[in-house]
Amino acid sequence: MIEETGRRLEEPARHWSRKLRTLEQFVIERQGDFRHEAGELTRLLYDISLAAKVVNRDVNKAGLVDILGVTDDQNVHGEVQKTLDILAHNEFVHALSRGGEVCLIGSEEQEEAIRVEPNGAVPGKYLVLLDPLDGSSNIDVNVSIGTIFSVYRVPDGLPDPTMDQVLQVGADQVAAGYVIYGSSTMLVYSTGRGVNGFTLDPSIGEFILSHPDLKIPQRGVIYSINEGNYNSWEIGLKKYIKWLQVEDAATNRPYTARYIGSLVADFHRNLLKGGIYIYPANARNPDGKIRLMYEANPMAFIVEQAGGMATNGHDPILEIEPTSLHQCTPIYIGSVDMVTRVKRFLSGAQDFPA
Ligand code: FDP
Predict the structure, then answer these.
(1) At what angle do helices 263-273 and 297-305 cross, to 10 degrees?
(2) Which residue, by CA, sits nearest to atom 7 of ligand 1?
(3) Cβ atoms within 10 A of the Cβ of 38, count?
(4) Contact 322, 173 (CB under 8 A)
(5) Average pLDDT over every residue of 248-271
(6) Which residues line ligand 1 (CB under 6 A)?
């Protein structure tokens, strides 16, 4: 476009920005994918992304807080982690309580469910379960951490439900996702029609579509597990891990071990590159350590939408009947070929010396 004076109005940078799709634009464009009232989900995802931006800012400041804490008279040594956990919890609860879409929130940081007062005459129709800051032991060593969220619709006819009344199997999630606070910050989510990833551009404060229609490779060569617990694993798992470590050119073995100890970060890498994340039962954690409702289920929803698989070793994660908000489950999640293979070892269908 040319002004009367002949000056060009469109600068190259403006032209470039037209190609960007922000999370908000994308969610609005894809409202038709959502089987319920689309505006509600749009608002809910907007609230989650806003809280994520605030948490991202705080996570980035964590190291600085450590230094500034001295002048602030705060004893933050060893407590930064706890502070950030609670800060993230508060941010998400606050953001989710504003819009009126949510009636109940369950958070890893709080034993009891959080009831959200209706924002007007009509109570919220959604239940949100979240781990506000996953992998928190990594905060004070500057390693990636994340937020995981899971969204359910409250069954009709339950205007003021209790958590026990609305806990549902993972297959019933209407949306799920995670935020990774890493070398860049990303939000990855699904409403059951594929998986899309957005990278935060800090200069404009927007999540920009960067990974459309994510698919996990069917085969991978990365395995992520805390091998320090080897001695207390079940025998089938021991055999599987030993099998992964044998040299065999035909199957690309030995595979590569990568374990950050932050579910979001390990899962995200394996989603992009192909691999398996395992947190099995062990002596200290007979039901595993990963929480079904706000860690395993949302990740299982995402991985299945991306063409992968998630199981507790026997049954699909998304079919486990929940019994409580904070229950744990063993988890084997990632590329289909790898999860299928470990299931064979667990069932005894495949053998190898442990
Ligand atoms: P964290 O306790 O640091 O929050 O979900 C819990 C979790 O981290 C996962 O993110 C992580 O993969 C796992 O626990 C690490 O546990 P281990 O230290 O036992 O390996």
Answers:
(1) 10
(2) 135
(3) 16
(4) no
(5) 96
(6) 134-137, 226, 261-263, 289-290, 295
Six token digits for residue 350: 């495949």
Question: What is the radius of gyration, based on Cα positions, of the chain?
Answer: 22
Whole-number Å distance, alpha carbon 137 to ligand 1 midpoint, is 8
Helix (H, G, I), strand (E, B) or coil at 102: strand
Taking the centre of ligand 1 as the mean of its atom positions, its distance from the CA of residue 8, in whole angstroms, is 55
Single pTM value for the model: 0.90
pLDDT digit string, tens, across residues 5-54: 455 555 555 555 567 899 999 998 888 777 666 678 888 999 999 999 99
Q: Which structure tokens are listed for 246?
A: 């044998």
Question: Could you read off the pLDDT of 86-129 as tens digits, one per residue?
Answer: 889 999 999 999 888 999 999 999 999 999 988 777 889 999 99
Confidence of residue 65 (pLDDT cuts 50, 70, 90): low
* Tens-digit pLDDT profile for residues 186-197: 999 999 999 999
Q: Which single residue is written with the structure tokens 């691999």?
A: 275
Q: For residue 146, give the ligand 1 atom closest to its CA.
A: 10
Kind plus residue range of the DSSP H or E element containing 187: strand 185-190
Helices 80-98 & 38-71 angle (0-180, nearest 10): 150
**What is the C-alpha end-to-end distance of the chain, expressed in Å?**
70
